[in-house]
Task: structure prediction
Amino acid sequence: MSQRRQFTLNTQPHVAEIGDTELLFQPEVMGDEFLDAYEDLQESQNRLGVDVNNLAGTDPVTLRSVVRSLRLFLARLMLPESAAEFVRWEVIEGGKVVDSFGTPEEADEHAAGLKNATVRDAGMRLPDRVLVELLEWAVELYGGGRRPTGSSTDSAPASPTLGTRGRAVSRSKASTRAAGR
Result:
């Protein structure tokens, strides 16, 4: 006897409302797209030598790089129009914007070919807490609610505890001697 099961794909973009701005995220992201973007995020943070769960004492230049990597990760999951609003680096020559790019590397490369050009981060400015909330939301949407951990052995269940739970009684040596035991 054959079985039939219907699968539904999301067709409407996910929407992140930030103040008056709506950022549109892809309705569906194939697993490898999400994992590739997440892997790039982790690699950039490893290159920086930071633990994003403990940024205390990290210098401001490194923190800016961490924030930039988070923004680039999120932009990869957005629809192109939202990504262009969220991350954008402008090349300025003679006080005028001559071009804009989706990554700082592209902007730096273009500016290097111009005389006295500079690069300015012209993307959407957000508090760090909002970036972290967006990151968590994106991981929930596309990663099944869990951050990828690497190999499956990294997330193996904990070993069971030995003995029975809740039955141990602790007595000090003095109370044991007083009881004559």
